[in-house]
Amino acid sequence: LQNRDVIWAPTERARWQEQRTAIEQQYIQKLSANQLGLVPADLSLYTLITYQFLHGGWGHIIGNLIFLFLLGFTVEKALGPGRYLIAYLVCGALSGLMFTAVSAGSYVPLVGASGSISGLMGMYVAIYGLQKIRFFYFLGVYFNYFRAPAIALLPVWVGKEIYDYWYAGATGIAYMAHAGGLIAGAGLVWLLGKSWLQVREEFFEPEEEEQDARFTTGYAQAMASLGRMEFDLARRQFEALREHYPERHILLEHLYQLAKLRPDLPEYRDRAKELMNDALSRRQPEQMIAIWQEYLGKGESYQPLSAHDHNRVLFTSLKQHDLKAAEKAFERLKSTGDDMLTTEACRLLVEEFEKRQMAPKARHYRQLLQAG
Description:
mainly alpha, Rhomboid-like fold, Serine Threonine Protein Phosphatase 5, Tetratricopeptide repeat, 2 domains, two-stranded antiparallel ribbon, 19 helices, 2 strands, 69% helix
């Protein structure tokens, strides 16, 4: 400063300062980084959130998106989307406060989601630790997954930080913000892991072999209860198994058979509809029609199916060319009093019988259509 008059004449410097003030007010202060970035010397509460969504370039945002992709899915799966979003933003805010504490008085704005993503890494390590999870990979057209301790991702993230360190002078990386985010994420799980940030119980996925062993043990216990004719206990055991193994079709079949013991209760209707939907999803329309016919004989008089249920059976029967079942479904549909579905079903039957050149049947349903 003592030699400034040697480098720049006082009159020229004064002229430059006048123009600089106008340029700062009209242009520089209106940049998004200054408007919404986190400026330690002029901290605002809203910028603790907004700075997380600004980035300094494509390299900055792409690097953050890669780790957001790697960490975000797994942490969200553990916490649920609502708590995940709140925890993500809180980590970013705490990261910004850490940066402000060590850069007090600075007018250089902080932008980027690196602090928030560092918080995700802290939560990720605190939640998963040495637990084995699935890592997806692909090589050309081949793809698969392997299981490894979740903490294996930590050295990858640390390696990226070390790599970036050598370019810190050029890119201005805020490492204290990263450190603040990492500590904040791990600290949130440590402090609130037993309460608000408690990992969802269904999140922890055991090994496949362990899953099979658990299912086999639980299934054997439920079957033993059936053998002792302890039906209520068996139903509870099958329901508990189905919560953990919803893809095991056999469990739904057992629950349906148990519900059938009391056809007067709504549970039998509900299980019948579940099993009908399951049969359709597994592309077994014949089984769906068989379940429907069995329910008509046992439970329809107590808990009638809806017009939509009968209509689905009618459509399925026509696709299977089971005209007898289709006509039976039409009679049941007609008895529900749903005129719109009945008219549409009657029109379908007319078209089907005309296509098959079954004139008497086609005439019968055409008359019903005209009468309606």
